[in-house]
Amino acid sequence: MTIVKSEVIRKLMDAKKFLLDGYIDEGVKIVLQIVNSSPKSDYNWFICNIIESIDCKYMFQILDKIGSYFDLDKCQNLKSVVQCGIENNTLNDHVSKALDLLVSQGKRDKLEEISKEILNKDQVSPALLIALANALRKVGDERDATNLLLEACKKGDKEACNSVNAITVRSVM
């Protein structure tokens, strides 16, 4: 059993090197071989390791190809996925899933860190701001959520403006 496990680890480390160096197809090929021949408990740690170390320009391409084979909810570094979404100015399924997992894990502190970082960026889409605001609301941080909605409203998003107006009306009553 130990021989098999060390072989899996060696192959995954080879895959990681390919993925980090931008040889996505080669790395994915190795990962898929392992996924098809090993129990999930032997390799699930790998996706968390990749999320932690991969360059944002490759993150979503890799998650598109192999993310469905892993349990991302086991990862403690989902903030990296959201940060890559912010860096790439992209709200996609991976960013949405990472936000949902951060909420379900009760990671209010991580979400607040992300909200501070996102407000320091000039070119952030209103959709990202709204998604993060909704996540913050779910963990009980109405103040930071409102700040993000205000920012999205300033960028011309009507949904955000309506949400901010609804909050303002509720707080006045």
TrEMBL record:
Pfam families: DUF1955. Gene3D superfamilies: 1.25.40.350. It comes from the Archaea. InterPro entries: DUF1955, ST1625. This is DUF1955 domain-containing protein. It comes from Sulfurisphaera javensis.
